[in-house]
From TrEMBL:
It comes from Sessilibacter corallicola. It holds the Pfam family Bac_globin. It comes from the Bacteria. This is Group 1 truncated hemoglobin. SUPFAM superfamilies: Globin-like.
């Protein structure tokens, strides 16, 4: 029997969407990270949210095709710092805990996300 993909273990599209819907408001309301969403219209925020859902689904083993840019290009020029990264990780862990995502899946998510750090953090 083959092991389920992370996508399946997270509840598929709906589970990943629930995670994003839990995480994004936390990031937007954060005193330090909120600056990344200032002066953005609802349409832009909703497009970004959909791209994040698609990216996570595709990279977790779902049958979704991600049409957005790579993480380096997407975050270039945003001046994301180590401190920003650490705060983001804290919010992501909190969101996973709120949703009762099991430890194995949290570990798998952490391993994937940590690979993205060098493409996202600039300073």
């Amino acid at each position: 029997m083959t092991e389920k993909t992370l996508y399946e273990r997270l509840g598929g599209y709906d589970g990943i969407t629930e995670f994003v819907n839990t995480l994004l408001p936390r990031l937007q309301k954060d005193n330090q990270l909120g600056r990344f969403w200032q002066h953005r219209g609802n349409d832009g925020v909703n497009r970004e949210k959909q791209l994040l859902i698609d990216y996570l689904c595709a990279n977790a083993g779902g049958a979704l095709y991600y049409t957005g840019r790579n993480m380096k290009l997407t975050h270039e020029g945003m001046n994301i710092s180590e401190s920003d990264w650490d705060i983001f990780i804290g919010h992501a862990v909190d969101a996973m805990n709120v949703l009762h995502i099991p430890a194995k899946e949290q570990s798998d998510i952490a391993a994937f996300v940590s690979q993205l750090k060098s493409d996202i953090v600039e300073c």
